[in-house]
Amino acid sequence: MEETLASLRRPKRRGRPPRPREEYHHADFEDVAEADGLAPPQSKRKRAASAAAAASLENQPLIDIIKHNGRLISHAVKRLVEDYESKKNSVTFQILTMLFEACGAKHEIYPDYLRESDVDDIVVSLVDLARKGLVEDNYNSKHKDLKNFKENLVSFWDSLVLECQNGPLFDDLLFQKIKDYVVALSCAPPRVYRQVASLIGLQLVTSFISVAKTLSGQRETTQRQLNAEKKKQSDGPLIESLNNRLALTHANITYLEELMRKIFGGLFMHRYRDVDPEIRMSCIRSLGIWVVSYPSLFLQDIYLKYLGWTLNDKNAGVRRTSILALQSLYEVDDNIPSLGLFTERFYARMIQLADDIDVSVAVSAIGLIKQLLRHQLLSDDDLGPLYDLLIDEPPMIRRAIGELVYDHLIAQNIKTSHPGARDGENEPSEVHIGRMLQILREFSDDSVLSSYVIDDIWDDMKAMKDWRCIVSVLLDENPAIELTDMDGTNLVRMLHASARKAVGERIVPAVDNRKLYYNKGQKEILENSRREITSALLTRYPQLLRKFISDKAKISPLVDMMTLLKLELYSYKRQEKHFKTAIDLIADAFFKHGEKGPLRSCIKAIIFCCTECQADLKDYAENKLKNLEDELVLKVRTAIKEVEAGDDEYSLLVNLKRLYELQLSKPVKNDSLFEDMYRILAHLRDMDNEVKSFLLLNMHLQVAWCLHAIDGENPSETCIDELLSKQSSLFDQLYYYLVVLPTYQKEGRSTTVLSCRVCIITAEMWCLFKKSKYSSTRLESLGYLPQPDMVQKFWKLCEQQLNISDETEDEDANEEYIEDTNRDAVMIAAAKLVLADTVSKDYLGPEIVSHYVSHGASTTEIIKHLITSLKKNTNFDMGALFFEALKRAYERYMAHVHDGENQILTGKSYSECQDLASRLAGSYVGSARIKNKSDILKIIQDGVSFAFVDLPNQLSFLEAALLPFVSKLQSSDIPDILADVEKRTQDTNMVGDQGAWRPFFTFVEHLRDKHAKNEVLHEEEEKPVRRRGRPRKVRDVPDVPDHQRCGKKLFRDDGHNSSGEESISASDHQGHGEDDDSDGDADQPLINTIRSSAAKLRSLKVSQQGTSSHKGVPGPSGNADLLLLIGLVGASSIVQNRIVMARLICLSSCLINSVW
């Protein structure tokens, strides 16, 4: 049996294994007898398929095969090559005819005419067909049958070249003819001709390169054989045969390279500047392939310069294609020595593209810069501008820069000799953490900028997820790193930010503000990360809290870590004592600090534990919170008594801040506390303004929580009486300050804060107890309507805050609660009163709108969205609002004129009046101009009446406020206005003061000019042009050097130059190698190169989005006023990040929702 099996086995071959079969049959140049072997027998299925393909080819022209039957291309090409030896003219005619038809020309060219005519004559006739419209655009067609047209066309020419490599390719007839027609058609005016011819010509070069590489391999083999034979014998038939084969192979390679050069000169050099960006992209893409695949010819500066020039192309797709081509070029280490001059000339442009207006271009450019760094072709000084992009808006750019910073500065593996080597990955986490801290040292003054840097690098840096290592470094257990105080702060921030990222939270504001959604698998990953963080901190967390409990910069992010832990693990692993210790330490930290950050973090952490914990741990957290509340109330009351006794106010201020932060999250039930605060506020008027502010804030929150506790269905009379008493007491204090503060002589930040607080709390109280909200309910007695004189006093104080200079606000930008006490917050509070219809719109609405253009971009945005919201109310008279607003602005100007003291201020108020009129008139465009034509006419009529009240003193109102509305009038309304004006001036002496009457004559002249034009009002379609990508600085791009073109008869006769219609902007920057940086930084450490960039980043003052709202406060669902306010805040790019401010302003409105 064994012998039988052994006999059935195939004999084991010895020696060299057989050479794998190649895809294409290359020319062996062997004897005919050896080359004439029989083909292997085919199976029946293959023979049947071949027969069917041959049958189908008989009835189909080449163009139909390319359009509809791509699977038959190889059979068609083989048949053409087989027929070529006997029917050269016929096959050539078929191929060229297919070329013309692929271009879409519906020609009637016959073989004899094609053979006898010149190339240019044929192309001119094809161009004439295009001018007559006899062209079918197969290239750009969206038809379903032609979806594979480009792919099939490329496949045909590639197959043809490869199939002809054993003969027809080198007969100096077929492909010379093809080359001439392709080059000529690529320069023809019809775009579709250029598109198809460029596609074919570029593919021909690519296919030629494939054949040339095969021949180069054969040449090397033949040369080795020849050298070996020469060592054996000096002469003989074999050596002669090898010499002949070597010469023939070299001649064929030279022939192909010459063909490539001609196509490059005749096609590429014109089409890389074509008006069509798709053609330019295909040219640059192909050139990148050629340089990488055939460097012996194309890796030269005469070809590389085109890749450099197109880095300045006006089309983003072309720029990106050029960058990608260079990326593939720099990936090959052997190419680097030949790229020295090219890199020196264009590296500066590559760095500039990292800040390109198109995001995809910028990201690709950053990848290219990484390759330059890997080959040490850039210095560290060149990277300075790139670090500014660490806080760039598009996340893709920030991620790309973060990866570059990680590779270059942290892992320091970018300078290795091989692309795949990642030496830095094997270094311990402590090393990477130390380098990261060195970077964060440059951003230590701003936690927001630090968050951006951490977010950018987080995905690449595994050491940021090594929780145990970070904790051990913070606890000084790792001797490899010695932390300074600044490093400790940065490391705590990094721990907190990294943990937030690990559990799926954002640490920097999102561009689109979309809510994050995760699938099941992602949620499991995030949950595992939460477990890992908890396990690392389970027993070490109390040690961290205890060590840094007195450090206000470190304790806040450390306490926030509690909300990221999986608290049930404390129970599962029997570590309840560590949890209780952590809670105790957090409560201690609450009473050790008086700043907003630590206080808010402590309250948030304890309430989180009360909500998320179970059983004994939850009871312990709730008891701790109750004890904290009782102790705080006692401290506040004690501090009040001490101040009344004449002691220092510091203790009272700190405890009022703590009480305020606590009341933002939960009610503090102590009736006598409100009375104590009212008493000290009423009796001690000389207290510090900040103390007064927090007394008012806490009283307001007490009132809001008291209202929240009332049962709307069955309210208690006792509760209502108690609330009315608190309401009356708080209004008494607010109204006192509304009267006193406008005349308060003491200036400074504390007075501004108190004024802002009074304005905001007053507006919130009026909204909270809006009379219409409670009418016809059991709580009707709670409704409140402010008196008009109080509304005027309120606005006077608001207006005073709006006039605070920008410089003053910038000086106070880093103070606590600045987001709650600036003019934007005041304007939002006033706008909310108008939107909620809490007070009469007739007074407050025009007053607000009159400041439309007076106080910067953020205030303008708030008022803009107020106007937009008011327009949605069809019953509201917007024309009257606009006219009254113009009057208020003009009256402010006249007040400055009468004072006559400050001419600069007078001129500014007049220009503000003009700008206001232009902005308001600008809202009447398109269909709104027709829809509101009665409002426009009414504004002009009322304005004319107002201007003529006190002649000629108020005539300047015509020029300052009404001229922009004249252009919005219908021509049919102008005669009536002119008649009215002339009637008013019939019996008036206008000879006296010509300067006072000048605005009148200007107004009349504009009316007459408008009427003379006889403008027909029509609906205008004005749509904002939305630019894609990011706004960037305008680049000054020089023109491309002029290239000489080969003169063809086609262009001499026709005079048309397709590439000259719209040439791209490109440049060969000679000065890119120069560096503007000083030489003094050359010897500095690597990290010092980003210090100048860090200073720039700090100056940007990036606003960080607020944290999520505290649990325990009712949500804003169902509150129309609150939603309107949120719309106001969200609409402004400057105000939208001040979430904390909006939350505090709207807190009372949130609380009232649950009553209903």
Automatic annotation (TrEMBL):
UniProt-annotated stretches for the region Disordered: 1-43, 1014-1085
GO biological process: chromosome segregation; meiotic cell cycle; sister chromatid cohesion
Biased composition (Polar residues): 1057-1066
Protein name: Cohesin subunit SA-3
Keyword RNA-binding belongs to the record: no
Positions with biased composition (Basic and acidic residues): 19-29, 1014-1024, 1034-1056
Keyword terms: Cell cycle, Chromosome, Chromosome partition, Meiosis, Nucleus, Phosphoprotein
Start and end residues of each SCD domain: 268-353
GO-annotated cellular components: chromatin; cohesin complex; nucleus
Quaternary assembly: Component of the meiosis-specific cohesin complex, which also contains the SMC1 (SMC1A or SMC1B) and SMC3 heterodimer. Such complex likely contains RAD21, or the meiosis-specific related protein REC8. Interacts with CCDC79/TERB1; recruiting cohesin to telomeres to develop structural rigidity.
Natural source organism: Miscanthus lutarioriparius
Molecular function as annotated in GO: chromatin binding
